[in-house]
Amino acid sequence: MSEFKRPQDDGDFQVNFTQLKPLMNATEAYYESSRCLFCYDAPCIQACPTGIDIPLFIRQISTGNIDGAARTIYTSNHLGNICGKVCPTEVLCEGSCVYNHQDIKPIEIGRLQSHATTQAILADTKLFEKLPDNGKKVAVIGAGPAGISAACELRMLGYAVDVFDAKKHPSGLALYGTAPYKISNDDVLREMKYLEEQFGFKTHYSNRISTREEYDNLEKDYDAILLGIGLGGTRSIRIPGEDLTNCEGATEFIETLKLDHINANIGKKVVVIGGGNTAMDAASESARMGAEEVVLIYRRTKLEMPAYDFELDLAKGVGVSAKFNVQPVEVLGEDGKVVGIKCIRMKEDYGDLIPIPDSEFVIDCDVVIRATGQDKQRGLLDVLSIKYDKAGRIAVNEHFQSSQEKYFAAGDAVNGGAEVVNACAEAKQAARGIHAFLNDK
Ligand SMILES: Cc1cc2nc3c(=O)[nH]c(=O)nc-3n(C[C@H](O)[C@H](O)[C@H](O)COP(=O)(O)OP(=O)(O)OC[C@H]3O[C@@H](n4cnc5c(N)ncnc54)[C@H](O)[C@@H]3O)c2cc1C
Ligand code: SF4
User: pLDDT of the chain along its 441 residues, tens only?
Assistant: First the structure.
């Protein structure tokens, strides 16, 4: 049973979605940074996909050099503030901190990172000197973490950069997807504004670029094109009843929740299908929105769940229950609306997952959320004749260059769906790939 009441106004919403990792004040940051052992060959650096020099920025915080700390972070990761809040630090930097070996709480690296970068953003501290303009232009498609990170890096290298995004706001799933108890919309947009002003790339929102003609024009006007297009909408699971009212995709549900807050469609009893992190988020968020009961169903065992353990614990901590080895068969409806979901129990049979005969059962519910993965943007890649693998991921070489030499790509569209920090890391490399390509290196 969920302990949360349905929020009636934005104040209630903020209470239900209180930040899990709130900002530290200066004293907290000083004490926490003083605990760091400044390890040689620090494992926390190795665990960070962007390779931030974590002991260095922690030492800078402990000596009061906050601008220096922010510079250290942003040098490696252009989305340093967002990543400080949304990164799964439990399995990355903090998960590898040496204190774990002594059963002592690891250093709160994410919160220290947020502390330093938030101060730089609030003070609008100018941290970087760009190289002089080199006369070349790059178009970036997608203002998500990959696109924005690439845009910053390309500006540093002296390119003129135009960023195009289909949506009204920048930052892709960092805004439209990440859970509100990890980061607020204001925090996301504040870092976006800071980066845009600091690096001087131009943005064109509500501007989907999808036709051959539009790309022909870009090819004429720009020296290279970076695709940071992410993934598509929630994948269909092809069961009867999927099109009933109140059966929706997780990314679509979460996007409405992120933008409309209390106006999002929440049921009394919600069933969430899936075992990934998005399923955990959708379940936690439904519970925090006051759903009386939230049930996760996953067709394999708990051990096989792709979600991080801490994400499952977070969901359970707000009253979500989980059923394993259960597969949905049909979404049941009355008058066009969801009234339940028919499921069947599953078992492993020499590595195959098979249904157990006569084990069907029904869970009554008024909302079903399908967290069953996102489609790939194959249609667009076909328009561009860009090669992709069987899973629909853009095929790139070690410089993140696609099969069409003018096109580079990074982020979810290449890795199939990972974390913000992976998109940032890849995009930086893709920007450097573009630089090498345009300079015959
Ligand atoms: C529900 C959910 C929760 C998540 N939570 C976390 C989390 O807590 N922590 C974490 O680290 N990661 C999280 N992730 C993953 C993370 O958000 C993504 O890995 C990351 O945003 C990928 O960045 P990207 O730039 O590749 O793609 P996206 O963020 O998807 O950005 C792609 C952008 O391209 C735009 N676009 C697409 N096609 C076009 C076109 N033709 N023309 C113009 N614009 C276009 C889109 O509008 C979008 O803004 C979550 C993902 C989901 C779905
Ligand atoms: S592993 Fe932990 S103690 Fe060592 S440098 Fe990193 S944060 Fe500090």
Answer: 668 999 999 999 999 999 999 999 999 999 999 999 999 999 999 999 999 999 999 999 999 999 999 999 999 999 999 999 999 999 999 999 999 999 999 999 999 999 999 999 999 999 988 788 999 999 999 999 999 999 999 999 999 999 999 999 999 999 999 999 999 999 999 999 999 999 999 999 999 999 999 999 999 999 999 999 999 999 999 999 999 999 999 999 999 999 999 988 888 999 999 999 999 999 999 999 999 999 999 999 999 999 999 999 999 999 999 999 999 999 999 999 999 999 999 998 888 899 999 999 999 999 999 999 999 999 999 999 999 999 999 999 999 999 999 999 999 999 999 999 999 999 999 999 999 999 986
How wide is the angle at C-alpha 248 spanned by C-alphas 323 and 184, nearest 5°? 90
Number of other residues whose CB lies within 10 A of the CB of residue 306: 14
State how far the Cα of 310 lies from the Cα of 320, in Å rounded to an integer.
13
Whether 226 and 434 have beta carbons less than 8 Å apart is answered as yes
Cα 25 to averaged position of ligand 2 atoms, centre (Å): 20
Q: Which ligand is nearest to the CA of 55?
A: 2
Q: Is the CB of 183 under 6 A from ligand 1?
A: no
Residue in 31, 53, 54, 113 to alter for ligand 2 test, most ligand atoms within 8 A of Cβ: 54
Whether 86 is in the pocket of ligand 2, judged by its Cβ within 6 Å, is: no
d(CA 143, CA 169): 8
| Gyration radius of the chain over CA positions | 23
| Residue 387 near residue 141 (C-beta atoms within 8 A) | no
CA distances from 100 to 40, 106, 239, 241 (A): 16, 6, 44, 47
Query: Which H helix or E strand runs over 12?
Result: helix 10-16
pTM listed for this prediction: 0.96
**Residue 153 corresponds to which tokens in the numbers above?**
């890096």
**Whether residue 109 has its Cβ less than 6 Å from ligand 2:** yes
Question: What domains sit in the chain, N to C, each tagged with a CATH number?
Answer: 21-122 (1.10.1060.10), 137-232+376-438 (3.50.50.60), 247-370 (3.50.50.60)
Instruction: Give the single-character DSSP code of 383.
Output: H
Q: Which residues pair with 234 in a beta bridge?
A: 374
| Number of alpha carbons in the 13 Å side-chain half-sphere of residue 106 | 22
Residue 425: strand, helix, or coil: helix
